[in-house]
Bifunctional protein FolD (Pontibaca salina), 296 residues
Amino acid sequence: MAATVIDGKAFAAKVREQVAEHVKRLKDDHNITPGLAVVLVGEDPASEVYVRSKGKMTVEVGMKSVEHKLAADTSEAELLALIDQLNNDPEIHGILVQLPLPDHLDEDLVINSLDPAKDVDGFHISNVGLLGTGQKSMVPCTPLGCLMMLRDHHGSISGMNAVVVGRSNIVGKPMAQLLLGDSCTVTIAHSRTKDLPEVVRGADIVVAAVGRPEMVQGDWIKPGATVIDVGINRIERDGKKKLVGDADYESCAEVAGAITPVPGGVGPMTIACLLANTLTACCRANGLDEPEGLTA
Ligand SMILES: Nc1nc2c(c(=O)[nH]1)N[C@@H](CN(C=O)c1ccc(C(=O)N[C@@H](CCC(=O)O)C(=O)O)cc1)CN2
C-alpha cells in the first residue's frame, strides 16, 4: 500500500496562520509586535533565497522584520558588534545568523555570542544544554517542525522506536532529544553505523538527516513506518536538476505508512517554526503565556 504523504507545505501554512493570530492578539491586547532580525554574511545563493523567504513570511504574520546583509569579508569583530547591538535592542525578540558562515568566521563563537533568549535557532550552547536536560529552551526549527508533524500524524509517539540517521548539531542531535522528550526509544545512527539498514529496519519512525542524497532505501524501512526526510540535496539526473531528500522517495513510499516529500515536507516547516520561536521568545521576554501547540 502506498504511504500517506505528509504535506509539510500545507501544515506550515497552518502553523503560520496560528502564529499570525497570536501576533494580532499581542498587538491588540498588549501593543507588542514581535521582531525578528536575520543576519546574512556573504552571497551564498541558497542562503539568499532562505533569508528572503524568512523576511517575507515574518512580515506576512504581522511581525517586524529586520535584515542585515553583510559583505563576505566582514570581520568577526564587526559581526559580533552587530550581534551585541541586536542583543540590546528591545524591539528585537529573535536573532538568526544564517548558516553556513564564510570560512574565516568561527560559527560556534558567533552563535554563542547571541543572547540565548533571542536565539530563535536554538543553536546557542545554553539552549542545547537546556534541551538536553529537558528544561525550557529555544528549540532548533527543523527538528521542532519534524516533531510537530509526527505529533499531528500519530497523536502520540510515546513508546515508539525512532531511528535518527544523522548526528549534526542542527538536526540529528536535537531531533533525538525531542523524540526522547516525547518518550520514544531513540537510536542515533549515522553513515558509519554498523549494519545501518538493519538498525533502520527496527524503527517505527525514521528521521533521515544524514546529508547524503537518497541514502535510506525502501528495503531498510519496516512496513508501515513513518519516514521524515530532512535532506535537501540538489542533484542532476537525466540531464535535469532535481531536489531530492536523504531517503529514496519512490522505494520508501512503497513500504512506509507515511512519508514527507522533498520538496514540500520538512523544509517549509523550518521557517514556520522560526516564526513560532520568535513569537515564543517575544512572549517570554514580556512575561506572557507561551502560545500553545507551537513549542516543544
Ligand atoms: N541559521 C540557520 N541556517 C540554516 C538553517 C536554519 O534552520 N537556521 N536551515 C537551513 C536552511 N533553511 C533555513 O534557513 C531552509 C532550508 C530549506 C527550506 C525549504 O523550505 N525548502 C524547500 C525547498 C526549497 C528549495 O527549492 O530550495 C522544501 O524542502 O520544500 C527552508 C529553509 C540551512 N541554514
